[in-house]
Amino acid sequence: MKKALIFFDIDGTLLDDEKQLPRSTKQAIRVLKEKGHEVAIASGRAPYFFQELRAELGIDSYICFNGQYVVYKGELIYENILDATAFRDLERFASTHHHPLVFMGGETFTANQIDHPYIIESIQSIKVDLPSHDPNYFETNHLYQALLFCTQEEEHLYTGHFPLFSFVRWHPFAMDVLPKGGSKANGIAQYMKRSGFSQEDIYVFGDGLNDLEMLAFSPHSVAMGNAPDEVKQQARYVTKHVNDDGIVHGLKLVGLLP
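The structure assignment produced for this chain is given below.
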């Protein structure tokens, strides 16, 4: 069989509802690698949020910050940062509406508020440590992504009003702030330039709104059974729930496992 390049999202795809890696998923990835396929991660998380997972799976290639930071076999090959001037305007606007922000740099992440309940509930839902407090971090550091905390009813204050940014909701209280046009699909395209794989070789697995572009990009796209309908409709295949060996079932659907 022709060698494939397979990208897996993390939350709700590799990790189950308890943020655990199912044993069947770990075994499946080991088999894929033994068959000579290339396995990578495509996540909205920062790289410091999934170091242990990469080590456990033996994966050294990944796309993070929703495509803004691409690492190929341990080497950083692509960066896409938020426009500093436009972000300063966003930060001021969000502050007037009492909407906190988390600033995500390449080495760490900080917040302009640390005791806001929206930050606490959202960040704890992905089982990582809460950010440190540094309201001026964005003034002196490149940001690959930011987290904006507001309700879905307040989202209209931002979408369409900041043309250099895209806003993608991932929690009832939180949205990712990305450079306009930045996506996992763009990150995969950057990865392909270095790896030599063609688009026909790309397989992707995801479950969230931030996966829509990469599901549209790949001819072999798989949505998890736990994904919302909008995500399932974008994918060519729909597998079982992540808690029900969804990765193994999906790999069988696309013919990568017998």
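Interim note for the steering committee: The domain at 5-79+182-253 is CATH 3.40.50.1000 (Rossmann fold). The mean pLDDT is 97.
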